[in-house]
Amino acid sequence: MQSKLGDFIRAHRERTTPASVGLPAGGRRRTPGLRREELAQLCEVSPTWLTWLEQGREVAASSKLLARMAEVLHLNAAERSYLFSLAERLDPQHDADAGEADQSLDAVVAAIDAPAYILNRQWDAVAWNGHALALFGGWLDVEETAPARPNLLRFMFRSAAARGLIVDWDDRARRLAAEFRADIGKHASDPALAAMIAELSQDSPEFRLLWASQDVVSREGGLRRFHHPLAGEMSFNQVTLHMAKRHDFKLVMLLP
What we know:
- By secondary structure, this protein is of the alpha+beta class.
- It has 13 helices and five strands.
């Protein structure tokens, strides 16, 4: 993976003109693009370190450095995402387009004739339809001006409504904690995720014990049972899909 990262950086360095980053193009050049020393200077790293990175040696590139490099090399959204994927780092701007994305996501879930919602990496609900709202009234019935998005784990472990709504709450809570650990993987140190985990560990003894157990299971579908205060017993088959252009987003559908 390191060699692929180095090859990608070198290729884009060589196609980035000095003029595009405000450097003079004078002097004889073996490549029309940036010299390694120039990219190193613009990214505030040593030429030796950048050489090692391009050669595929075991050197670690931080998210901050990769973001700066993406800016200098004028990478588009797909190229930037690929850069962070090769480096196995979380893009600090991975949620930057969330506001624009939400408008199209609303249309996606609205077209589904069953409870459907979309979760981000932190398991905040970023979009949901009327069927989901009717089922999860204690979770999704938030004001549009609310300071935080409705979060599935906060609902599960901090809301009395969840314990009344979800059949076999203990088993479902255990699975959710294990699924969340598997879901976030190497992103667990992300500040927002770490803060939420610490918050839930402090507020919920059940979450604290489940998180300490280190259980990991893949996020699966299957039967989901509810005892709705108005509709009574309800059962659905859960199907979860990842969004193609936002890999940190998951579409969850509860089909009859």
